[in-house]
C-alpha cells in the first residue's frame, strides 16, 4: 500500500508489535504472523525525528503498534468498549488512519524504562500526570512525552504510550494493508 511506509530498525526504532503476541488487551495474538509496523509518510517523518532525539539521550524508541486495520480495531472495541482507551470501531481509530503510534523507551541495553505500567494497561495509572507514581516513572514519562512532542506528535491524556499527528482526523481511514493482517475471528 503506497499510503504507508514500513518502519524498520533503519528508522532507529525497535519493532515489537504487541498485537502479534498474546501480551495485549485482547489477551491473544490479533495480528497474523509476519505483521509489520507502518505509518503514513508524515507520521513516519515525525517518528524518525523522535528516534533521533531518543538516540541523543542514549535511548531507543520501541514501537508497540502503528497502523491498525479496522478488523483489529473492532476486536479491541469488543474487548474494551471504553472510549477513554479504545476508539469505537464504527467511527475509526487514528491508528486505522495510519497517523498514530504506540511507543516506549528502551535503555541502550534494551531494557525498557519503567513507565509505571505496561503498554496496554487500561487503568487510571496509565494516564499522564499521575501524582501516585514514583519520581523515576514521572521522569521517564515526561522524557517520552518531550521527545514525541518535539518531533511533532501530540498525546492523549489516558495512555502514556499513544502519540498521533495533531490533525489526525483530517486523514482518511485506510483499508486493510498487506503489512498488517488480522487473524480470522470466530
Widest beta sheet: strand line-up = 2-4-5-7-6
- Please state the overall shape, judged from the principal axes of the Cα atoms: globular
The overall pLDDT, averaged over residues, is: 93
Rounded radius of gyration (Å): 15 Å
- In DSSP terms (H or I, runs of 4 or more residues), the helix count works out at 3
Strand content: 5-15%
Structure keywords:
186 residues; alpha+beta; Muramoyl-pentapeptide Carboxypeptidase, domain 2; five-stranded mixed beta sheet; two-stranded antiparallel sheet; 3 helices; 7 strands; 23% helix; 13% strand
Helices and strands in order, then pairings?
Blueprint lengths: L4 E2 L6 E3 L22 E2 L1 H16 L3 E6 L4 H10 L20 E7 L28 H16 L3 E2 L6 E3 L22
Parallel strand pairs: 2-4
Antiparallel strand pairs: 1-3, 4-5, 5-7, 6-7
Helix pairs in contact: 1-3
